[in-house]
Amino acid sequence: MGERTATPSSPRPGSATGAGSTPPVGWRWTTRGSRRSPPTWPASPPLYLPAGQYDTLRAGTEALARAAVDAGVAVTAESWPGMVHGWQGLVSAGVPEAVAAFARARAYLDDLGV
Predict the structure, then answer these.
(1) Higher pLDDT pick, 112 / 15
(2) Is 47 exposed, middle or buried (0-12, 13-18, 19+ CB in 10 A)?
(3) Using an 8 Å Cβ cutoff, are 30 and 8 in contact?
(4) Which of 5, 9, 38, 69 lies 20 to 30 angstroms, CA to CA, from 29?
(5) Nearest 10 degrees: CA dihedral of 58, 60, 62, 64?
(6) Is this model's pTM higher than 0.90 or not?
(7) What is the share, in percent, of the chain residues with pLDDT greater than 70?
């Protein structure tokens, strides 16, 4: 069904940084749902996967992103420098990074027309 395309502002995890290596801080990459193998997931909407640099679930987020891409799901994954797991929850306290994360998620949904 065509080539997988990634439009990174920095390298896709495990690609230009070297197979299996940790992506640089602040990475972001996007695919647009092309397939390189038959999907193994049921139909899935596009995924937006933000992860903090020091997030305890960062490795899982990266693994989910790779598996989704391999299954033909459109994925946008981002790493937020200096952030820990759940930093977005500090939006009500006015933490600038949390406010920015919520704005980014809202912009992603707006781009999808949601």
Answers:
(1) 112
(2) middle
(3) yes
(4) 38
(5) -150
(6) no
(7) 63
At residue 79, the 3 state secondary structure works out as: strand
* Tokens linked to 106: 């809202």
DSSP 16-53: TT-TTPPPPTT-EEEB-S--SS---S-----EEEEEET
Give the type of residue at 49.
L
Report yes or no: 27 and 11 within 8 Å, Cβ to Cβ: yes
Q: What per-residue confidence (pLDDT) applies to 30? A: 58
Q: How far apart are CA 61 and CA 51, in angstroms?
A: 7
Contacts of 72 (CB under 8 A, 6+ apart): 1, 33, 34, 35, 36, 37, 39, 41
- Give the integer Cα–Cα distance in Å for 49 and 65: 7
Cα–Cα–Cα angle for 58, 110, 70, rounded to 5 degrees: 45
Per residue in 65-94, pLDDT tens? 998 888 888 999 999 999 999 999 999 999
